[in-house]
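Risk register update: the risk of archive-format incompatibility is retired. Evidence:
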Amino acid sequence: MNIAFFLLPKQEVVYLSINGTMRQALEKMEYHRYTAIPLIDEEGKYAGTLTEGDMLWKLKRTPGLSLSDANSIPLKEIPRQMQNEPVRIDAQIEDLLALAANQNFVPVVDDHDVFIGIVRRSEIINYCIDLLKKYKQTT
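Archived output:
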């Protein structure tokens, strides 16, 4: 099965520009109650995923950093502890399984690496549960 079936399109995804600030990320993640958020560059290409942990490490490693100072810290200056790998839109569900084990979502890009949306881990798990149910019914 093609992953397009599971795609949450970009216009429905909360994401940030890589040129945004740490403060913007904190506020957006708090408002939506997210622990991770995709980052997009000036050309609309996927630039990585920012996590709460990334910001906590930045806070820990920057003595004296306050919430008001977070307005002056660009997201591109926050080191990311993990690199969430994207998949192309023509990927198959099997391509998502290994990635979803370690990521809340899998970013999806087109042939030019432009970010077009995400596949949520919950969608992948639900799909696998449905397959198991169908398998049990036939055996």
